[in-house]
Amino acid sequence: MATIQDVAKAAGVSPMTVSHVINDHPHVRKSTREKVLLAMAKLDYRVNVAARNLRKGRTGTIGLAVPEVNRPYYGQLAALIIAATEKYGIRVSIEQTGASRENELDALSLSRNRLYDGLILSTVGMGPKDVERLKVDYPVVILGERIFDGPVDHVAMPNVDGSRAATRHLIDRGCRRIAMLSGQVGDEVDVSSLRRSGYRLALESAGIPYDPALVHELGSSTMRAGAERIRAMRDGGADFDGVFCVTDTVAVGVLRGLADLGIRVPDEVKVIGFDNVEEGEFLVPSLSTIDPDHVMMATRAVDLLVRRIEGSTSVDGHEEFVSHFSLVARESTGG
Amino acid sequence: MATIQDVAKAAGVSPMTVSHVINDHPHVRKSTREKVLLAMAKLDYRVNVAARNLRKGRTGTIGLAVPEVNRPYYGQLAALIIAATEKYGIRVSIEQTGASRENELDALSLSRNRLYDGLILSTVGMGPKDVERLKVDYPVVILGERIFDGPVDHVAMPNVDGSRAATRHLIDRGCRRIAMLSGQVGDEVDVSSLRRSGYRLALESAGIPYDPALVHELGSSTMRAGAERIRAMRDGGADFDGVFCVTDTVAVGVLRGLADLGIRVPDEVKVIGFDNVEEGEFLVPSLSTIDPDHVMMATRAVDLLVRRIEGSTSVDGHEEFVSHFSLVARESTGG
DNA sequence: TTGTATGCGTTATCAG
DNA sequence: CTGATAACGCATACAA
């Protein structure tokens, strides 16, 4: 493979001049530039990114650590983040953490090998106790709920307000016994806890008593868990006329479970989710949900990270960004 | 940031000894090793991957070019491919091509900048005419349908046989007027053409005449397109009792469209898709489909690529791998 | 078992 | 406007 040296020789100039041409430096005479470009074409020259990285101390790649690219919400996020990096000419390398605290911490230290110029980290396993570990000397943006007031920039979802709006919507549609299916609840600042808070706030505002028997914690936020749990609840004699699901994924399972029970949605029970995944619009019945503006979250995360990368350590403090949301009313709550 | 030199100084040895320790070379006395490890820990030493890459001529990263990580089938594939690279200690960087020929060719030449050790490329936009462009001097594995007998390794889906089995299944369940919704049909070797072939073969075997009026080409293989087209077909007076959809994504839309028309599935019309995406099991009705063994495809693609990377150019010829499939019968075809 | 010399390909700096 | 020099951090080959 041709190197800058080869091109220089072929063009009858010094390697430095070739470098100038490659990097679009001004002060290069037109005729020289053309000579060089010709030689480059003839030799099919390609820059060696590894060498450039070594010299510049940058890799041009950022890491994105998510539980799994194939999970509905994270897949969408990954797609948007990759799209958002394009305008900066940055590439994205994906690490799958499986939502485990261990792997999230690993991703954090992998980046320290100067593999990436920065890291966007979805914290699902890590909790507030791990805040100390975030004190690293390279750019990090946290995407998720479990770390607040950490030492780094943070992009979060409108969990409490969104959930409150979702629950409120069920109440407006006439529901009085509203079940909530959450994922695992931990230390007060995970997604499920936050969304439960919104749920409670909405009930309180409406003067509806909170009934612990209607609030269930799933082992995992999957379709299967949603389907199984809703059937078990009804089999156990639970009485509800509305269900707020912690994610659309769970809601898909709940719709399935209710169908198995022969319960009509929305006539007998109304259902709402959170995330606005693409298929919600096409389910039967179509799924009402909260749309947390993924595009904005992705864009913001990338912009924050790039700002840190460019400005190195010069940006003081850290930023907390919570995206806006909108309620999407579809058939599962009566349209 | 500490370098090998710093560690060497701190440990009172030469830089080379540190390197030996880092790379687990034998012939290092235990006591020396420990001295070095101690110094590394004290200085919080991290290898500089860029430097190592330059020296070794490898980057430890492969590229994965897919239309979009968020599309059902490709997201799943990406997740599996990333998982499959883990055992090799390789990272995956994702390029989104948007299914455009241009961007696919770009991905191909980007890799030539020695950014990646190899590339897994989903060809959707590129066609047989671009085969020449695949003659590159670094490892490439094609994942997709449109390139056959190219100069590189190729992992493909069982499109014809799978589609044939899907159509055959509808026939077995009593369908006689079977519609087919495909994506864009191009040059005989794209997914849609291949799946159409399977469809025709099944009809022929069963002695059912091929009716062009029942075969429709969608502008894009989306849920929306599926829903709209099936409604338009029925509005136009089309008469069918079964639908074979080119992908599960389209099938989800079709189920929705049929619901809009008040047509009962599977009683009046039976529906089957292709891909076995996760949500199929939880739809109402649950979706019958062809499962092309994604895990095997991902594993195979990674293994083939790694073989090329390790063996450099030493592997002769190229391999064509077509995965096996299984039929998943669910409610949409009568269980 | 450990150390020395050298170069991977590029670019920053500064001189011409 | 162009070029000489040096250095980024590491690992191969070989010598001691």
UniProtKB/TrEMBL annotation, chains A, B:
InterPro entries xref list: HTH_LacI, LacI/GalR-like_sensor, Lambda_DNA-bd_dom_sf, Peripla_BP_I
Keywords: DNA-binding, Transcription, Transcription regulation
SUPFAM superfamilies to which the protein is assigned, alphabetical: lambda repressor-like DNA-binding domains, Periplasmic binding protein-like I
Entry superkingdom: Bacteria
Coiled-coil boundaries: none
UniProt entry tagged with the keyword Amino-acid biosynthesis: no
Gene Ontology MF terms: DNA-binding transcription factor activity; transcription cis-regulatory region binding
Domain HTH lacI-type residues, every copy: 2-56
Name of this chain's protein: DNA-binding LacI/PurR family transcriptional regulator
Species of origin: Plantactinospora soyae
